[in-house]
From TrEMBL:
<comment type="function">
    <text>Involved in glycoprotein quality control targeting of misfolded glycoproteins for degradation. It primarily trims a single alpha-1,2-linked mannose residue from Man(9)GlcNAc(2) to produce Man(8)GlcNAc(2), but at high enzyme concentrations, as found in the ER quality control compartment (ERQC), it further trims the carbohydrates to Man(5-6)GlcNAc(2).</text>
</comment>
<keyword id="KW-1133">Transmembrane helix</keyword>
<comment type="pathway">
    <text>Protein modification; protein glycosylation.</text>
</comment>
<dbReference type="GO" id="GO:0005975">
    <property type="term" value="P:carbohydrate metabolic process"/>
</dbReference>
<dbReference type="Pfam" id="PF01532">
    <property type="entry name" value="Glyco_hydro_47"/>
</dbReference>
<feature type="active site" description="Proton donor">
    <location>
        <position position="221"/>
    </location>
</feature>
<comment type="similarity">
    <text>Belongs to the glycosyl hydrolase 47 family.</text>
</comment>
<feature type="active site">
    <location>
        <position position="489"/>
    </location>
</feature>
<keyword id="KW-0735">Signal-anchor</keyword>
<dbReference type="GO" id="GO:0005509">
    <property type="term" value="F:calcium ion binding"/>
</dbReference>
<keyword id="KW-0106">Calcium</keyword>
<feature type="transmembrane region" description="Helical">
    <location>
        <begin position="46"/>
        <end position="66"/>
    </location>
</feature>
<feature type="binding site">
    <location>
        <position position="578"/>
    </location>
    <ligand>
        <name>Ca(2+)</name>
    </ligand>
</feature>
<dbReference type="GO" id="GO:0004571">
    <property type="term" value="F:mannosyl-oligosaccharide 1,2-alpha-mannosidase activity"/>
</dbReference>
<feature type="compositionally biased region" description="Basic and acidic residues">
    <location>
        <begin position="119"/>
        <end position="129"/>
    </location>
</feature>
<dbReference type="InterPro" id="IPR001382">
    <property type="entry name" value="Glyco_hydro_47"/>
</dbReference>
<dbReference type="GO" id="GO:0036503">
    <property type="term" value="P:ERAD pathway"/>
</dbReference>
Length: 590
Protein backbone atom coordinates (compact mmCIF):
# COMPACT_ATOMS: atom_id res chain seq x y z
CA UNK A 1 0.00 0.00 0.00
CA UNK A 2 1.52 3.28 -1.09
CA UNK A 3 1.64 6.14 1.42
CA UNK A 4 -0.65 9.07 0.73
CA UNK A 5 0.86 11.95 -1.23
CA UNK A 6 2.04 15.07 0.67
CA UNK A 7 -0.52 17.87 0.79
CA UNK A 8 -1.35 21.07 2.73
CA UNK A 9 -4.74 19.85 3.91
CA UNK A 10 -5.09 16.44 5.44
CA UNK A 11 -7.86 13.92 5.91
CA UNK A 12 -6.89 11.00 8.10
CA UNK A 13 -8.88 7.90 8.81
CA UNK A 14 -7.05 5.60 11.17
CA UNK A 15 -9.74 3.00 10.87
CA UNK A 16 -8.96 2.43 7.18
CA UNK A 17 -5.21 3.07 7.22
CA UNK A 18 -4.26 -0.55 6.61
CA UNK A 19 -5.63 -3.69 4.99
CA UNK A 20 -5.21 -7.39 5.40
CA UNK A 21 -5.70 -9.88 8.12
CA UNK A 22 -3.29 -10.45 11.00
CA UNK A 23 -2.74 -12.96 13.73
CA UNK A 24 -4.48 -12.01 17.01
CA UNK A 25 -1.32 -12.28 19.07
CA UNK A 26 0.11 -9.22 20.80
CA UNK A 27 3.29 -9.47 18.74
CA UNK A 28 1.41 -9.35 15.41
CA UNK A 29 -0.72 -6.46 16.70
CA UNK A 30 2.39 -4.46 17.55
CA UNK A 31 3.92 -5.22 14.17
CA UNK A 32 0.69 -4.28 12.41
CA UNK A 33 0.48 -0.95 14.22
CA UNK A 34 4.11 -0.17 13.48
CA UNK A 35 3.66 -1.04 9.79
CA UNK A 36 0.60 1.20 9.55
CA UNK A 37 2.49 4.02 11.27
CA UNK A 38 5.35 3.68 8.75
CA UNK A 39 2.91 3.84 5.87
CA UNK A 40 1.78 7.34 6.93
CA UNK A 41 3.47 10.35 5.42
CA UNK A 42 5.76 12.53 7.50
CA UNK A 43 3.09 15.22 7.53
CA UNK A 44 0.43 12.83 8.81
CA UNK A 45 2.69 11.55 11.58
CA UNK A 46 3.56 15.12 12.62
CA UNK A 47 -0.07 16.09 12.73
CA UNK A 48 -1.05 13.11 14.90
CA UNK A 49 1.80 13.80 17.33
CA UNK A 50 0.82 17.47 17.51
CA UNK A 51 -2.80 16.58 18.31
CA UNK A 52 -1.72 14.09 21.00
CA UNK A 53 0.56 16.67 22.63
CA UNK A 54 -2.23 19.24 22.52
CA UNK A 55 -4.67 16.83 24.16
CA UNK A 56 -2.09 16.07 26.84
CA UNK A 57 -1.58 19.79 27.59
CA UNK A 58 -5.32 20.46 27.65
CA UNK A 59 -5.78 17.58 30.05
CA UNK A 60 -3.21 19.02 32.46
CA UNK A 61 -4.62 22.55 32.16
CA UNK A 62 -8.20 21.45 32.75
CA UNK A 63 -7.45 19.10 35.66
CA UNK A 64 -8.28 21.68 38.40
CA UNK A 65 -11.60 22.47 36.76
CA UNK A 66 -12.93 18.97 36.23
CA UNK A 67 -15.84 19.52 38.58
CA UNK A 68 -16.77 22.77 36.87
CA UNK A 69 -16.60 20.99 33.53
CA UNK A 70 -18.92 18.28 34.78
CA UNK A 71 -21.39 20.98 35.77
CA UNK A 72 -21.33 22.20 32.20
CA UNK A 73 -18.72 24.95 32.40
CA UNK A 74 -16.58 23.84 29.49
CA UNK A 75 -12.99 25.10 29.70
CA UNK A 76 -13.00 26.65 26.26
CA UNK A 77 -16.28 28.51 26.81
CA UNK A 78 -15.46 30.60 29.86
CA UNK A 79 -17.18 33.68 28.49
CA UNK A 80 -19.67 32.54 25.85
CA UNK A 81 -21.66 35.77 25.88
CA UNK A 82 -18.78 38.10 25.38
CA UNK A 83 -16.20 36.26 23.33
CA UNK A 84 -15.98 34.37 20.09
CA UNK A 85 -13.76 31.32 19.88
CA UNK A 86 -11.38 31.25 16.95
CA UNK A 87 -9.42 28.11 16.10
CA UNK A 88 -6.90 28.01 13.28
CA UNK A 89 -4.73 25.16 12.06
CA UNK A 90 -1.58 25.95 10.09
CA UNK A 91 0.17 23.28 8.02
CA UNK A 92 3.29 23.67 5.92
CA UNK A 93 5.03 21.65 3.28
CA UNK A 94 7.75 20.50 5.66
CA UNK A 95 5.23 18.57 7.65
CA UNK A 96 5.01 20.94 10.67
CA UNK A 97 1.66 21.73 12.27
CA UNK A 98 0.56 24.33 14.82
CA UNK A 99 -2.81 24.90 16.47
CA UNK A 100 -3.79 28.38 17.60
CA UNK A 101 -6.60 28.94 20.08
CA UNK A 102 -7.61 32.49 20.92
CA UNK A 103 -10.49 34.41 22.44
CA UNK A 104 -11.32 37.76 20.86
CA UNK A 105 -13.35 40.15 22.93
CA UNK A 106 -15.77 42.83 21.75
CA UNK A 107 -13.14 45.52 21.59
CA UNK A 108 -10.79 43.34 19.55
CA UNK A 109 -8.10 42.55 22.09
CA UNK A 110 -6.74 39.00 22.32
CA UNK A 111 -7.18 37.59 25.82
CA UNK A 112 -5.06 34.71 27.04
CA UNK A 113 -7.38 31.75 27.50
CA UNK A 114 -5.80 30.62 30.75
CA UNK A 115 -6.21 34.07 32.30
CA UNK A 116 -9.77 34.45 31.02
CA UNK A 117 -10.74 31.14 32.56
CA UNK A 118 -8.93 31.95 35.82
CA UNK A 119 -10.83 35.21 36.20
CA UNK A 120 -14.13 33.39 35.99
CA UNK A 121 -13.04 30.58 38.28
CA UNK A 122 -12.03 33.08 40.95
CA UNK A 123 -15.60 34.38 41.04
CA UNK A 124 -17.31 30.99 40.73
CA UNK A 125 -18.09 30.75 44.45
CA UNK A 126 -20.82 33.35 44.74
CA UNK A 127 -20.31 33.83 48.50
CA UNK A 128 -16.52 34.03 48.64
CA UNK A 129 -13.99 36.59 47.35
CA UNK A 130 -11.51 35.70 44.59
CA UNK A 131 -9.05 33.26 46.02
CA UNK A 132 -5.75 34.81 44.88
CA UNK A 133 -4.76 37.90 46.91
CA UNK A 134 -1.88 38.64 44.54
CA UNK A 135 -3.89 38.45 41.32
CA UNK A 136 -2.45 39.80 38.10
CA UNK A 137 -4.09 42.92 36.62
CA UNK A 138 -5.83 40.99 33.86
CA UNK A 139 -7.35 38.67 36.42
CA UNK A 140 -8.41 41.63 38.52
CA UNK A 141 -10.12 43.32 35.58
CA UNK A 142 -11.99 40.14 34.72
CA UNK A 143 -13.05 39.76 38.35
CA UNK A 144 -14.57 43.25 38.22
CA UNK A 145 -16.38 42.39 34.97
CA UNK A 146 -17.76 39.28 36.63
CA UNK A 147 -18.91 41.34 39.63
CA UNK A 148 -20.69 43.70 37.25
CA UNK A 149 -22.34 40.81 35.39
CA UNK A 150 -23.52 39.40 38.71
CA UNK A 151 -24.96 42.77 39.75
CA UNK A 152 -26.56 43.25 36.34
CA UNK A 153 -28.06 39.77 36.45
CA UNK A 154 -29.89 40.63 39.65
CA UNK A 155 -31.10 43.96 38.25
CA UNK A 156 -32.27 42.35 35.02
CA UNK A 157 -34.08 39.51 36.77
CA UNK A 158 -35.81 41.44 39.53
CA UNK A 159 -35.75 45.21 38.82
CA UNK A 160 -35.59 45.69 35.05
CA UNK A 161 -36.52 49.24 34.06
CA UNK A 162 -36.87 50.36 37.67
CA UNK A 163 -34.56 52.63 39.63
CA UNK A 164 -32.80 50.31 42.06
CA UNK A 165 -32.56 46.62 42.89
CA UNK A 166 -33.55 45.17 46.26
CA UNK A 167 -31.53 41.97 45.96
CA UNK A 168 -32.52 40.24 49.20
CA UNK A 169 -36.26 40.47 48.57
CA UNK A 170 -35.72 40.06 44.82
CA UNK A 171 -37.68 43.20 44.08
CA UNK A 172 -37.05 46.87 43.36
CA UNK A 173 -37.43 50.39 44.71
CA UNK A 174 -38.38 53.55 42.86
CA UNK A 175 -37.06 57.06 43.34
CA UNK A 176 -37.92 58.83 40.10
CA UNK A 177 -39.18 55.82 38.12
CA UNK A 178 -36.69 56.44 35.32
CA UNK A 179 -34.50 53.36 35.35
CA UNK A 180 -31.65 55.04 37.26
CA UNK A 181 -29.49 51.93 37.59
CA UNK A 182 -29.75 51.14 33.89
CA UNK A 183 -28.83 54.68 32.78
CA UNK A 184 -26.06 55.00 35.37
CA UNK A 185 -24.51 51.76 34.10
CA UNK A 186 -24.58 52.44 30.35
CA UNK A 187 -21.07 53.84 29.99
CA UNK A 188 -19.69 51.30 32.47
CA UNK A 189 -20.86 48.48 30.21
CA UNK A 190 -19.36 50.19 27.18
CA UNK A 191 -16.01 50.71 28.91
CA UNK A 192 -15.94 47.08 30.10
CA UNK A 193 -16.80 45.79 26.63
CA UNK A 194 -20.02 44.11 27.78
CA UNK A 195 -21.72 44.24 24.40
CA UNK A 196 -24.74 42.06 25.06
CA UNK A 197 -25.70 43.84 28.27
CA UNK A 198 -25.17 47.24 26.66
CA UNK A 199 -27.35 46.42 23.66
CA UNK A 200 -30.25 45.23 25.78
CA UNK A 201 -30.02 48.38 27.90
CA UNK A 202 -29.86 50.56 24.79
CA UNK A 203 -33.01 48.87 23.46
CA UNK A 204 -34.81 49.79 26.69
CA UNK A 205 -33.67 53.42 26.42
CA UNK A 206 -34.90 53.56 22.82
CA UNK A 207 -38.29 51.98 23.42
CA UNK A 208 -39.21 52.57 27.07
CA UNK A 209 -37.42 55.62 28.48
CA UNK A 210 -39.73 58.64 28.50
CA UNK A 211 -39.33 61.84 30.47
CA UNK A 212 -42.88 62.99 29.75
CA UNK A 213 -44.02 61.93 33.19
CA UNK A 214 -45.76 63.64 36.07
CA UNK A 215 -42.97 63.02 38.56
CA UNK A 216 -40.77 65.15 40.82
CA UNK A 217 -37.05 64.57 40.41
CA UNK A 218 -34.11 65.97 42.32
CA UNK A 219 -32.22 68.43 40.11
CA UNK A 220 -28.78 67.37 41.29
CA UNK A 221 -29.30 63.60 41.26
CA UNK A 222 -31.05 63.56 37.89
CA UNK A 223 -28.35 65.81 36.40
CA UNK A 224 -25.35 63.79 37.52
CA UNK A 225 -26.91 60.35 36.96
CA UNK A 226 -29.26 60.75 33.99
CA UNK A 227 -28.02 63.78 32.05
CA UNK A 228 -24.39 62.93 32.82
CA UNK A 229 -24.86 59.27 31.97
CA UNK A 230 -26.56 60.00 28.65
CA UNK A 231 -23.96 62.61 27.61
CA UNK A 232 -21.11 60.29 28.49
CA UNK A 233 -22.61 57.36 26.59
CA UNK A 234 -23.18 59.59 23.57
CA UNK A 235 -19.52 60.60 23.53
CA UNK A 236 -18.26 57.04 23.94
CA UNK A 237 -20.57 55.50 21.32
CA UNK A 238 -21.40 58.35 18.93
CA UNK A 239 -25.03 57.18 19.00
CA UNK A 240 -27.37 60.19 18.77
CA UNK A 241 -30.10 58.28 20.61
CA UNK A 242 -28.35 59.22 23.84
CA UNK A 243 -27.80 62.84 22.85
CA UNK A 244 -31.48 63.21 21.97
CA UNK A 245 -32.48 61.82 25.37
CA UNK A 246 -29.96 64.13 27.05
CA UNK A 247 -31.48 67.18 25.32
CA UNK A 248 -34.93 66.07 26.45
CA UNK A 249 -34.10 65.69 30.13
CA UNK A 250 -31.88 68.79 30.12
CA UNK A 251 -34.64 71.02 28.82
CA UNK A 252 -37.12 69.56 31.31
CA UNK A 253 -34.83 70.40 34.24
CA UNK A 254 -34.57 74.10 33.34
CA UNK A 255 -37.62 75.27 35.37
CA UNK A 256 -35.51 74.68 38.50
CA UNK A 257 -33.54 77.84 37.69
CA UNK A 258 -36.64 80.09 37.71
CA UNK A 259 -36.08 81.45 41.22
CA UNK A 260 -35.76 85.01 42.57
CA UNK A 261 -32.03 84.55 43.13
CA UNK A 262 -31.24 82.26 40.18
CA UNK A 263 -30.05 79.70 42.73
CA UNK A 264 -32.06 76.67 41.59
CA UNK A 265 -34.75 74.81 43.48
CA UNK A 266 -33.94 71.26 44.50
CA UNK A 267 -36.94 69.57 42.84
CA UNK A 268 -38.49 69.66 39.37
CA UNK A 269 -41.64 68.08 37.96
CA UNK A 270 -40.36 67.06 34.54
CA UNK A 271 -43.84 66.46 33.18
CA UNK A 272 -45.54 69.65 34.37
CA UNK A 273 -42.55 71.95 33.97
CA UNK A 274 -42.74 73.25 37.55
CA UNK A 275 -40.13 73.39 40.30
CA UNK A 276 -40.07 73.90 44.06
CA UNK A 277 -37.83 73.63 47.12
CA UNK A 278 -38.26 70.86 49.69
CA UNK A 279 -41.44 71.15 51.76
CA UNK A 280 -39.53 71.94 54.95
CA UNK A 281 -37.20 74.73 53.71
CA UNK A 282 -36.48 77.19 50.93
CA UNK A 283 -32.79 76.26 51.05
CA UNK A 284 -30.79 74.18 48.60
CA UNK A 285 -27.53 72.50 49.51
CA UNK A 286 -24.37 74.16 48.22
CA UNK A 287 -22.97 70.91 46.82
CA UNK A 288 -26.11 70.25 44.79
CA UNK A 289 -26.35 73.66 43.11
CA UNK A 290 -22.61 73.82 42.37
CA UNK A 291 -22.22 70.23 41.07
CA UNK A 292 -24.39 70.36 37.95
CA UNK A 293 -22.09 72.61 35.94
CA UNK A 294 -20.05 70.04 33.99
CA UNK A 295 -23.20 68.50 32.55
CA UNK A 296 -25.09 71.67 31.58
CA UNK A 297 -21.97 73.30 30.16
CA UNK A 298 -21.43 70.27 27.95
CA UNK A 299 -25.08 70.25 26.89
CA UNK A 300 -24.71 73.85 25.68
CA UNK A 301 -21.54 73.00 23.78
CA UNK A 302 -23.22 70.10 21.99
CA UNK A 303 -26.52 71.83 21.23
CA UNK A 304 -25.16 75.35 20.67
CA UNK A 305 -27.94 76.54 22.99
CA UNK A 306 -26.33 78.90 25.53
CA UNK A 307 -29.09 78.94 28.17
CA UNK A 308 -27.84 75.76 29.87
CA UNK A 309 -24.32 77.02 30.47
CA UNK A 310 -25.52 80.53 31.32
CA UNK A 311 -27.77 79.22 34.10
CA UNK A 312 -25.07 77.22 35.87
CA UNK A 313 -22.40 79.88 35.32
CA UNK A 314 -24.62 82.38 37.15
CA UNK A 315 -24.57 80.12 40.21
CA UNK A 316 -20.77 79.98 40.28
CA UNK A 317 -20.53 83.76 39.91
CA UNK A 318 -22.84 84.32 42.85
CA UNK A 319 -21.14 81.80 45.12
CA UNK A 320 -17.77 83.31 44.22
CA UNK A 321 -18.87 86.73 45.54
CA UNK A 322 -20.78 85.63 48.65
CA UNK A 323 -19.79 86.47 52.20
CA UNK A 324 -19.73 83.73 54.81
CA UNK A 325 -16.75 81.74 53.55
CA UNK A 326 -13.82 80.75 55.74
CA UNK A 327 -10.54 80.80 53.80
CA UNK A 328 -12.39 79.61 50.70
CA UNK A 329 -14.49 77.03 52.57
CA UNK A 330 -18.26 77.29 52.06
CA UNK A 331 -21.25 76.60 54.35
CA UNK A 332 -23.59 73.75 53.49
CA UNK A 333 -26.81 75.60 52.58
CA UNK A 334 -27.84 78.48 50.32
CA UNK A 335 -31.27 80.15 50.14
CA UNK A 336 -33.12 80.11 46.82
CA UNK A 337 -34.93 83.38 47.56
CA UNK A 338 -32.10 85.55 48.88
CA UNK A 339 -29.17 83.80 47.24
CA UNK A 340 -27.27 83.95 50.57
CA UNK A 341 -25.56 81.24 52.60
CA UNK A 342 -27.58 79.97 55.56
CA UNK A 343 -26.62 77.94 58.64
CA UNK A 344 -23.29 79.69 58.53
CA UNK A 345 -20.30 78.69 60.61
CA UNK A 346 -20.42 74.96 59.75
CA UNK A 347 -17.81 73.70 57.31
CA UNK A 348 -17.26 70.20 55.97
CA UNK A 349 -15.84 68.38 52.96
CA UNK A 350 -18.46 65.69 53.47
CA UNK A 351 -22.17 65.62 52.66
CA UNK A 352 -23.78 68.82 51.30
CA UNK A 353 -20.48 70.52 50.43
CA UNK A 354 -18.09 67.92 49.03
CA UNK A 355 -18.54 68.16 45.26
CA UNK A 356 -18.44 71.99 45.27
CA UNK A 357 -14.67 71.70 45.63
CA UNK A 358 -14.47 68.86 43.13
CA UNK A 359 -16.33 70.84 40.46
CA UNK A 360 -14.22 73.98 40.91
CA UNK A 361 -11.20 72.02 39.68
CA UNK A 362 -13.04 69.94 37.12
CA UNK A 363 -14.77 72.88 35.44
CA UNK A 364 -11.36 74.52 35.10
CA UNK A 365 -10.02 71.34 33.48
CA UNK A 366 -13.10 70.83 31.30
CA UNK A 367 -12.83 74.35 29.85
CA UNK A 368 -9.20 73.95 28.87
CA UNK A 369 -7.73 75.54 32.05
CA UNK A 370 -8.69 79.05 31.01
CA UNK A 371 -11.21 80.08 33.69
CA UNK A 372 -8.92 81.60 36.32
CA UNK A 373 -11.69 82.42 38.79
CA UNK A 374 -12.52 78.73 39.20
CA UNK A 375 -8.86 77.87 39.75
CA UNK A 376 -8.39 80.67 42.27
CA UNK A 377 -11.42 79.53 44.28
CA UNK A 378 -10.15 75.95 44.27
CA UNK A 379 -6.62 76.83 45.37
CA UNK A 380 -7.93 79.08 48.12
CA UNK A 381 -10.25 76.34 49.38
CA UNK A 382 -7.43 73.77 49.49
CA UNK A 383 -5.35 76.20 51.54
CA UNK A 384 -8.39 76.61 53.79
CA UNK A 385 -8.55 72.84 54.25
CA UNK A 386 -4.89 72.66 55.22
CA UNK A 387 -5.22 75.60 57.63
CA UNK A 388 -8.49 74.72 59.35
CA UNK A 389 -9.45 71.07 58.85
CA UNK A 390 -6.32 68.95 58.61
CA UNK A 391 -5.21 66.99 61.69
CA UNK A 392 -3.31 63.83 62.69
CA UNK A 393 -4.75 60.87 64.56
CA UNK A 394 -3.29 58.94 67.47
CA UNK A 395 -1.47 56.60 67.84
CA UNK A 396 -0.40 56.19 64.19
CA UNK A 397 -0.57 59.75 62.92
CA UNK A 398 -3.06 59.31 60.10
CA UNK A 399 -3.76 62.55 58.25
CA UNK A 400 -7.48 63.27 58.14
CA UNK A 401 -9.94 66.05 57.25
CA UNK A 402 -12.29 66.97 60.09
CA UNK A 403 -15.15 69.47 60.35
CA UNK A 404 -15.63 72.91 61.88
CA UNK A 405 -18.73 74.05 63.74
CA UNK A 406 -18.65 77.66 64.93
CA UNK A 407 -14.94 77.53 65.55
CA UNK A 408 -14.93 74.09 67.20
CA UNK A 409 -13.02 71.31 65.46
CA UNK A 410 -14.61 67.86 65.19
CA UNK A 411 -12.53 64.77 64.22
CA UNK A 412 -15.48 63.48 62.18
CA UNK A 413 -14.84 62.38 58.60
CA UNK A 414 -17.42 61.07 56.13
CA UNK A 415 -16.45 58.37 53.66
CA UNK A 416 -17.56 60.92 51.07
CA UNK A 417 -14.42 62.94 51.88
CA UNK A 418 -12.34 60.18 50.30
CA UNK A 419 -12.98 61.83 46.94
CA UNK A 420 -10.34 64.38 47.98
CA UNK A 421 -7.14 62.35 47.43
CA UNK A 422 -8.14 61.75 43.81
CA UNK A 423 -9.11 65.38 43.25
CA UNK A 424 -5.84 66.65 44.73
CA UNK A 425 -3.87 64.22 42.57
CA UNK A 426 -5.79 65.30 39.47
CA UNK A 427 -4.93 68.93 40.15
CA UNK A 428 -1.25 68.11 40.68
CA UNK A 429 -1.29 66.27 37.34
CA UNK A 430 -2.35 69.50 35.68
CA UNK A 431 0.43 71.54 37.24
CA UNK A 432 -0.96 72.60 40.61
CA UNK A 433 1.42 72.65 43.62
CA UNK A 434 3.39 69.46 44.22
CA UNK A 435 2.38 69.36 47.88
CA UNK A 436 -1.17 68.59 46.69
CA UNK A 437 0.10 65.19 45.51
CA UNK A 438 1.87 64.57 48.83
CA UNK A 439 -1.31 65.38 50.73
CA UNK A 440 -3.26 63.14 48.34
CA UNK A 441 -0.99 60.21 49.22
CA UNK A 442 -1.39 60.80 52.96
CA UNK A 443 -5.17 61.02 52.74
CA UNK A 444 -5.27 57.94 50.50
CA UNK A 445 -3.55 55.96 53.25
CA UNK A 446 -6.16 57.22 55.73
CA UNK A 447 -9.07 56.21 53.51
CA UNK A 448 -7.52 52.76 53.09
CA UNK A 449 -7.23 52.46 56.88
CA UNK A 450 -10.94 53.23 57.16
CA UNK A 451 -11.42 49.90 55.38
CA UNK A 452 -8.65 47.73 56.74
CA UNK A 453 -9.31 48.58 60.41
CA UNK A 454 -12.88 47.29 60.16
CA UNK A 455 -13.60 43.63 60.79
CA UNK A 456 -15.23 43.18 57.36
CA UNK A 457 -12.54 45.19 55.56
CA UNK A 458 -15.25 47.64 54.42
CA UNK A 459 -15.45 51.28 55.47
CA UNK A 460 -18.31 52.69 57.50
CA UNK A 461 -20.23 55.77 56.33
CA UNK A 462 -18.68 58.01 59.00
CA UNK A 463 -15.66 57.66 61.28
CA UNK A 464 -14.22 59.65 64.18
CA UNK A 465 -10.47 59.86 64.67
CA UNK A 466 -8.79 59.72 68.05
CA UNK A 467 -6.50 62.67 68.74
CA UNK A 468 -5.62 62.03 72.40
CA UNK A 469 -2.24 60.70 73.39
CA UNK A 470 -2.46 57.13 74.62
CA UNK A 471 -5.29 56.15 72.27
CA UNK A 472 -5.27 52.46 71.39
CA UNK A 473 -6.71 52.80 67.90
CA UNK A 474 -6.92 55.66 65.42
CA UNK A 475 -10.50 55.14 64.29
CA UNK A 476 -13.74 54.87 66.22
CA UNK A 477 -17.16 54.25 64.71
CA UNK A 478 -20.46 55.11 66.34
CA UNK A 479 -23.20 52.50 66.17
CA UNK A 480 -25.37 54.64 63.87
CA UNK A 481 -22.49 55.18 61.42
CA UNK A 482 -21.45 51.57 60.77
CA UNK A 483 -23.30 51.09 57.50
CA UNK A 484 -21.67 50.73 54.08
CA UNK A 485 -23.60 51.82 50.98
CA UNK A 486 -21.19 50.37 48.36
CA UNK A 487 -19.80 53.89 47.89
CA UNK A 488 -17.13 54.67 45.28
CA UNK A 489 -15.03 57.50 46.75
CA UNK A 490 -12.08 55.43 47.99
CA UNK A 491 -11.72 53.32 44.86
CA UNK A 492 -12.18 56.50 42.81
CA UNK A 493 -9.14 58.02 44.49
CA UNK A 494 -7.21 54.74 44.17
CA UNK A 495 -7.79 54.96 40.42
CA UNK A 496 -6.36 58.49 40.22
CA UNK A 497 -3.40 57.73 42.47
CA UNK A 498 -2.47 54.63 40.48
CA UNK A 499 -2.84 56.42 37.12
CA UNK A 500 -0.48 59.17 38.21
CA UNK A 501 2.06 57.27 40.34
CA UNK A 502 1.95 53.70 38.97
CA UNK A 503 2.46 52.53 42.55
CA UNK A 504 1.04 49.01 42.59
CA UNK A 505 0.02 49.21 46.24
CA UNK A 506 -3.03 51.17 45.13
CA UNK A 507 -4.10 48.27 42.93
CA UNK A 508 -3.56 45.86 45.80
CA UNK A 509 -5.72 48.01 48.09
CA UNK A 510 -8.45 48.11 45.47
CA UNK A 511 -8.25 44.35 45.06
CA UNK A 512 -8.80 43.91 48.79
CA UNK A 513 -11.87 46.16 48.65
CA UNK A 514 -13.30 44.13 45.77
CA UNK A 515 -12.69 40.89 47.66
CA UNK A 516 -14.57 42.17 50.67
CA UNK A 517 -17.47 43.48 48.59
CA UNK A 518 -17.73 39.96 47.18
CA UNK A 519 -17.46 38.33 50.59
CA UNK A 520 -19.86 40.48 52.60
CA UNK A 521 -22.26 42.19 50.17
CA UNK A 522 -22.75 39.76 47.27
CA UNK A 523 -26.21 38.18 47.06
CA UNK A 524 -26.22 34.70 45.53
CA UNK A 525 -29.38 35.22 43.44
CA UNK A 526 -27.89 38.32 41.81
CA UNK A 527 -26.80 41.77 42.87
CA UNK A 528 -24.97 43.27 45.83
CA UNK A 529 -26.46 44.86 48.93
CA UNK A 530 -25.49 47.69 51.22
CA UNK A 531 -24.95 46.52 54.80
CA UNK A 532 -25.69 47.95 58.27
CA UNK A 533 -22.64 46.85 60.25
CA UNK A 534 -19.10 46.74 58.88
CA UNK A 535 -17.85 45.66 62.31
CA UNK A 536 -19.72 42.36 62.38
CA UNK A 537 -18.30 39.88 59.86
CA UNK A 538 -20.59 37.13 61.13
CA UNK A 539 -23.75 39.08 60.34
CA UNK A 540 -23.15 42.44 58.63
CA UNK A 541 -26.94 42.91 58.42
CA UNK A 542 -27.87 43.48 54.77
CA UNK A 543 -30.01 46.53 54.01
CA UNK A 544 -31.55 45.04 50.84
CA UNK A 545 -30.58 47.83 48.46
CA UNK A 546 -28.09 48.15 45.61
CA UNK A 547 -27.49 51.82 44.86
CA UNK A 548 -27.23 52.74 41.19
CA UNK A 549 -23.80 54.25 41.80
CA UNK A 550 -22.37 50.81 42.58
CA UNK A 551 -22.59 50.01 38.85
CA UNK A 552 -22.15 53.58 37.65
CA UNK A 553 -19.15 54.47 39.81
CA UNK A 554 -17.71 51.85 42.16
CA UNK A 555 -17.24 49.02 39.67
CA UNK A 556 -16.24 51.42 36.88
CA UNK A 557 -13.42 52.91 38.92
CA UNK A 558 -12.27 49.45 40.02
CA UNK A 559 -12.17 48.31 36.40
CA UNK A 560 -10.20 51.37 35.32
CA UNK A 561 -7.86 50.93 38.30
CA UNK A 562 -6.94 47.44 37.09
CA UNK A 563 -6.83 48.22 33.37
CA UNK A 564 -3.44 48.17 31.66
CA UNK A 565 -4.70 50.33 28.79
CA UNK A 566 -3.30 53.82 29.52
CA UNK A 567 -5.62 55.45 27.00
CA UNK A 568 -8.79 53.82 28.33
CA UNK A 569 -10.58 57.04 29.34
CA UNK A 570 -7.40 59.12 29.33
CA UNK A 571 -7.37 61.79 32.02
CA UNK A 572 -5.78 64.16 29.52
CA UNK A 573 -8.89 63.91 27.34
CA UNK A 574 -11.77 63.27 29.74
CA UNK A 575 -12.95 64.64 33.06
CA UNK A 576 -15.29 62.55 35.23
CA UNK A 577 -18.43 64.09 36.64
CA UNK A 578 -19.24 63.36 40.27
CA UNK A 579 -21.15 60.21 39.20
CA UNK A 580 -18.10 58.87 37.30
CA UNK A 581 -19.45 59.69 33.85
CA UNK A 582 -16.55 60.81 31.63
CA UNK A 583 -17.08 63.99 29.60
CA UNK A 584 -14.56 65.34 27.09
CA UNK A 585 -12.13 68.10 27.93
CA UNK A 586 -12.91 70.87 25.48
CA UNK A 587 -10.50 71.44 22.61
CA UNK A 588 -8.42 74.62 22.63
CA UNK A 589 -10.68 76.26 20.05
CA UNK A 590 -13.84 75.78 22.15
Amino acid sequence: MLPPSRQDYVSISLAGAGAGSYNNSKQWRRQSCWRKWKQLSRLQRSLILCVLVLLFICGIASYPTVTEHIRGNALCAAHPKHSSLSVSLKLNTTGGACLFLVFRNWRGAVIDTEQATKGTKDMENKDEPPANPEAKPSEESEAVREAFRHAWRGYKDFAWGHDELRPISKSYSEWFGLGLTLIDALDTMWIMGLKEEFEEAKAWVASELSFNRNVDVNLFESTIRILGGLLSTYHLTGDTLFLDKAKDIGSRLMPAFNTPSKIPYSDVNIGKGTAHPPRWTSDSTVAEVTSIQLEFRELSRLTQEPQYQASVAEIMQQVHKLDGKLDGLVPMFINTNSGQFTHQGIYTLGARADSYYEYLLKQWIQGGRKEDQLLEDYLQAMEGVKKNMLQKSSPNGLTFVGELSHGQFSPKMDHLVCFLPGTLALGAHFGLPADHMELAKELMETCYQMYVQMETGLSPEIVHFNMHQGSVRDIEVKLADRHNLLRPETVESLFYLYRFTKDHKYRQWGWEVLQNFNKYTKVSSGGFTSINNVRDPEYPSPRDKMESFFLGETLKYLYLLFSDEPDLISLDHYVFNTEAHPLPIWPASA
